Amino acid sequence: MIILWKKLFGSTCTLLPATILSLTFSSFAQDLAPGNKPTSDLTNSKSEKSDESESNSREDGSSDKEEGSGDNEQTADSTTSSPDGSEQNPSGGGNVSTEKTSASVVSTPPPSLSFAVPDVAGKAFDVKRDSGTLEDLDELSRVEDLLPDSTPPSGFSEETFNRDIPLLSNHMLFGAFPASARFEQSELDGNNLALEVTSVLDHLSPSVAMFPLFPYSSVVGRNLSLAEGTYKVDGENAFLLGASSDLSYSGEVSFSGSTSRVVLIGGSTVSVDPGSKIDLDVALSDLVVVSRSDWSVSDAAFAAGSKLYLRSLSDLSLKNIDFSATDLVRLEALMDLSLDSARFSAGLQEIQMRATTIDLINVDFPASSVVEMHAMKGGLDSRYPTFGVANRSYGRVNFLRNISYGGKSNLIQDRSSFDLHGTNIKIFKHP
Questions:
Q1: Residue 328 · residue 353 · CB < 8 Å
Q2: Whole-number Å distance between alpha carbons of 330 and 312
Q3: Which of the two residues, 324 and 145, has the higher pLDDT score?
Q4: Residue 228 in this model has a pLDDT that exceeds 80
Q5: CA triple 357-362-368, angle to 5 deg
Q6: Residue 339 Cα to chain centre, angstroms
Q7: Is residue 125 very low, low, confident or very high in pLDDT (cuts 50, 70, 90)?
Q8: Closest C-alpha to 285, from 262, 319, 302, 268
Q9: For residues 290 and 268, is the Cβ–Cβ distance under 8 A?
Q10: How confident is residue 15, by pLDDT bands cut at 50, 70 and 90?
Q11: Which of 402-411's residues contact partners 24+ apart within 8 Å by CB, and which partners?
Q12: Tens digits of per-residue pLDDT, 60-115?
């Protein structure tokens, strides 16, 4: 090739190809030689390559450590990097020191830290939960001591538990009572889930001699809603329909059967839709409806065979109400009793009212009936109510407007008219 170039271009061009071939073979020989690296004529190039070599050496050392950490041993082939930043001479001689100029100072990053948990440390953390050797687990054991015991209490019965579930359930009633919600008196006595009902019932009889308590069967739930229809209540005992929370009914609700008394109790409230009526069969004698909280009824009717008793353990407000009974109608409130536009059945023997304050508007008491009213302060001069809205007084019986006895023509609007028409009206102070 050199002879050809010499013939074509002359001796002047012979040196150039020879030089290129010499450099090429020299570079190829250096690449084949193991452990040899090309050198650079520039000091800055040496410094950069020295940094790269140092970084690679550190990474190799980290890799060796990580690979050996699994067996927790170092192999004989493991190497460490030189901390002085020197690199090996490509010819296999001594180390060549790198020089860094102020113009090209390269900041060497801190070596990456390798971490491996020894087997013995791993075993130290393998602690059973109940050993209590670690501080955190000891704290957990103290918290567990504060938690309630999950074991069933003594006397717990799965059968009793399942039996009590209906006491917490809501029931929509459509002319019939579900068998699951039926309870005898012995099942409710002492049962805290029925306390809102039984406590109201116990609150009635001590002050009402004509409504003594006697054995009863019952239908009880959390919220009870009666739709219009006829409900059968047979048995020798009284029948109790109780809601620990809300009792409501709408339309005409009738009870028929052989029981002698029907008691409706709202442990929280009693709700009556306008136009509704509760009616007892002629064979049934008494109807009792009680609300624990304020009770307001309008445009409704209550009918009983013998005695009718409506009560609120707070305020009782009755407007445009028909009362039907033969022996007694008793209206009672722990606080205020308000009666507006009330009509009583003819032939009713006795009417009783009892409250802290009694307010009457548009009431005509039937002829021949005995009327007894009990207020906190009793009557004025132990006999008379107040007359007119302007004279209303707390703790008294107040005839606010249009009160009559034996017909609307017999108005009672002052003391003289009261003496004339109200001879059967008695006003008492709470004992």
A1: no
A2: 12
A3: 324
A4: yes
A5: 90
A6: 39
A7: very low
A8: 262
A9: no
A10: low
A11: 402/361, 402/362, 402/363, 403/360, 403/361, 403/362, 403/363, 403/364, 404/363, 404/364, 404/365, 405/364, 405/365, 405/367, 405/371, 406/365, 406/366, 406/367, 406/368, 407/364, 407/367, 408/364
A12: 444 444 444 444 444 444 444 444 444 444 444 444 444 444 444 455 555 554 44
**Average pLDDT of the segment spanning 133-140:** 57
DSSP 326: S
Could you identify the residue written with the tokens 């039984």? Answer: 198
Per-residue pLDDT tens for 376-390? 999 999 999 999 999
pTM for this one?
A: 0.63
Q: Please provide the distance, in angstroms rounded to a whole number, between the alpha carbons at the two ends of the chain.
A: 143
Contact in structure between 405 and 412 (CB atoms under 8 Å): yes
Give the DSSP per-residue string, 68-129.
HHTTT---TT-----TT--EE-TTS-SEE-----TTSPPPPPPPPPP----HHHHHHT---T
Q: What are phi and psi of 351, to 5 degrees?
A: -125, 130
In the chain, the amino acid numbered 11 is S
Closest CA to 252 of 302, 308, 178, 186: 302
CA separation for the pair 411, 420 (Å, rounded): 10
- d(CA 216, CA 361) in angstroms, rounded, equals 37
Instruction: Using the structure block, give the residue that is written with the tokens 């039937």.
Output: 366
DSSP-assigned beta bridge partners for residue 184: 217
Pull the structure tokens for residue 368.
Answer: 């021949």
**Rounded CA separation 338/396 (Å):** 12
* Per-residue pLDDT reduced to its tens digit, 301-325: 999 989 999 999 999 999 999 999 9
Q: Dig out the tokens for 335 from the structure.
A: 């606080």
Q: If you write DSSP's letter for every residue of 40-52 in order, what string do you get?
A: -SSHHHHHHHHHH
**Helix intervals (H) in 10-42:** 15-32
Phi and psi of 428, rounded to 5°? -125, 160
pLDDT in tens, 356-369: 999 999 999 999 89
Paired tokens of 388? 């007119």
pLDDT reported for residue 63: 44
Question: For the chain, what are the domain ranges?
Answer: 169-355
For residue 201, what are the β-bridge partners? none
